[in-house]
Amino acid sequence: MKIYAIVGAGGFGREVAPLVTQMTEISSHENFEILFVDDHFQDKAINGYTVVDTESFMKMDGDKFFNITIANSKTRQTIAERFIELGAKPFSISASNAINLSHNIIGEGAVFCPFTTVTSNATIGKFFHANLYSYIAHDCVIGDYVTFAPNVQCNGSVVIENHAYIGTGAMIRQGTPDRPIVIGEGAVVGMGSVVTKSVAPYTTVFGNPAKPLRSS
């Protein structure tokens, strides 16, 4: 028996669960179960999937796999490290119409929602989230625990460091191999922003062109 856990029964988890069902039905000839793991959710089932807490999941018999559908990247990292330590293995989730074109390196635990694209020669770290209609173009380097909201346009030769968050509809200008656009660790790019130059770590930018938000 293989057990596939979606950690987090919130909105994103409920969006992703059907993708896991499609993947396992297509690729698996063995018995499997798909469930939610959520230590704070009170219902025993949601959208037809059983909900259990972490302790119950870890006590189940079978090969245990997990992915994390929680937006907060630091929380994702904490959960990932804990589950791996307890013996569960990460698995990646990809919609049937997500496109992975050529010579890309993608870390464990990624989520690629419908209509997402990675073109060529990109490197993507662990537990990356790519929401609906987002894309990553050639020669980009994406760190661990990075989040793309829907419809992010990440053009070529861009570096996005660990724990960065790119908001819905944001566009990142193409860099060059010798001068990539760099989005620093923990930076936040606001919804609809157009990033034309590098963003410092732990900085929030917004607008067209994107500029750092200033305290009033």
TrEMBL record:
CDD domains: LbH_AT_putative (cd03360)
Occurrences of domain PglD N-terminal (ranges): 5-83
Protein family per UniProt: Belongs to the transferase hexapeptide repeat family.
PANTHER family: ACETYLTRANSFERASE (PTHR43300), UDP-N-ACETYLBACILLOSAMINE N-ACETYLTRANSFERASE (PTHR43300:SF7)
Name the UniProt record assigns to this protein: Acetyltransferase
